[in-house]
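Hi L.,

You mentioned the student needs an example of a multi-chain input paired with its predicted structure. This one should do, with 384 residues in total across all chains.
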Amino acid sequence: MRVFPLDKVFQLLEPGPVVLLATSRNGRDNVMTMSWHMMMDFMPPRIACVVSEGDYSFRALRDTRECVLAIPTADMAALVTDIGNCSGADRDKFREFGIGRGKAAKVRVPLIEGCVANIECRVTDDALVERYDLFVLEGVAAWADEAWPELESTAVPRRLPRTLHHNGDGTFRTDGEFIDQKARMVKFPEFL
Amino acid sequence: MRVFPLDKVFQLLEPGPVVLLATSRNGRDNVMTMSWHMMMDFMPPRIACVVSEGDYSFRALRDTRECVLAIPTADMAALVTDIGNCSGADRDKFREFGIGRGKAAKVRVPLIEGCVANIECRVTDDALVERYDLFVLEGVAAWADEAWPELESTAVPRRLPRTLHHNGDGTFRTDGEFIDQKARMVKFPEFL
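Structure written out for the whole complex:
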């Protein structure tokens, strides 16, 4: 994996892909599937996510205040579903599913190999955790898979990976047609 | 438009589509484009979104505590971009862009015609508005366009509209291939 610029992280999450959330607590790595996340700020990249108190990852995220968000590709749909349909309370998902682990730079949580990108995050605000299970994260390092050299390019069209968008019922849509409306972006020239 | 069940609203937003956010303040309707939103809870449908204090819609949302979230179709990409690249401070976007208005049931904000679905929302928590421009919304009524009779079907494959996912730079991806992993959804049988 190669370094991915933090100021481009919002472009990874703004399209709304399913992500994998990795945590590590007491020497045990775990991973869950998550679609309830959004960008909150560009730089440093601030991200909100909802991790239910019923999820095994909740306590790891709350206690260690660290995680990795990884964006799987469309061909990982079966794995992504299986990861979301069992609990780390009674199994080692990394081992059972044969998920490759990479070394993170700033958090003690593994990166997930084979994903489009990985974002190392720290919890920076837990004010809404008790009420809504809502965590505020800050991206502190990011990595892109070597397979996607154009990921942070400003060219049009960019060669972008197909990711997954969860319809909420075990069905997904992948990314389809690329539509370029850059010429109409008069308000935000810094993104062109 | 026909009534859309509130307990299915999460299936509209969980895939991460671009939405239009309509507000109305002092008799002036306005609309902006937004991608920074996420589901927070199923029922009643709770939604988080970030509306920057610099956006003209911010004050309307903060003061009236009401809005409509509408999900545009892929063929509305140019309009969606244009709406996001001008300010309601100096123009009437509904009139200038010829956007059709429908009558909402529970909020004093217009529905947006031609969209896949409209969700009437109230602001239920503004604890993080000052710090992050983050609003917590609750969906109080929802509507689907007659063109999408299968939107809340549980059949596989469903005929789903192509929506827009913003890459953050004026380019979009539309929804592509439908992937069915329902058979692997052992943890959440209530969604099958």
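You could point out the following to them. Chain B has one domain: 6-191. The first strand of chain B starts at residue 2 and ends at 3.

Best wishes,
N.
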